[in-house]
Amino acid sequence: MFVGTAEELRARQEQARELAEQAAALLDKIDALGLGDTSGQLHTPGGIIRNRPGQGWTTADR
């Protein structure tokens, strides 16, 4: 469990959100290869990464 300050927690949460956005962009690139269905969602410390039909992979806070 995280035991730092509130400021450190906010900074780490922001970093996790940024990494989740990068992961969503990579999943879009994988889908663009057309090798199969990758529908679904991933739960991360930065939120949820979901595949939205017609929109690609997107991130959302929990």
Name its key features.
62 residues; alpha+beta; three-stranded antiparallel sheet; elongated
Q: Explain this structure to me?
A:
The chain has one helix at 6-32; strands spanning 41-44, 47-52, 56-60. With 62 residues, it is an alpha+beta fold. A three-stranded antiparallel beta sheet has the order 1-2-3, with helices on one face. The longest helix is centred in the N-terminal third of the chain and has 27 residues, at 6-32.
Question: What layout of secondary structure does this protein have?
Answer:
Blueprint: H1 6-32, E1 41-44, E2 47-52, E3 56-60
Antiparallel strand pairs: 1-2, 2-3
Beta-strand content: 15-25%
Rough outline: elongated
Percent helix: 40-55%
Beginning-to-end CA distance, first to last residue:
18 Å
Number of contiguous helices: 1
- Radius of gyration, in angstroms, nearest whole number: 14 Å
Low-confidence stretches: none
Structural class: alpha+beta
Q: Mind summarizing the main beta sheet?
A: 3 strands, antiparallel
Total number of strands: 3
Summed over residues and divided by their number, the pLDDT gives a mean of 86
Series of H and E elements: HEEE
Tell me the strand order in the biggest sheet.
Answer: 1-2-3
What is shown here, in short?
The chain has about 60 residues and is an alpha+beta fold. It has one helix at about 5-30, and strands at about 40-45, 45-50, 55-60.
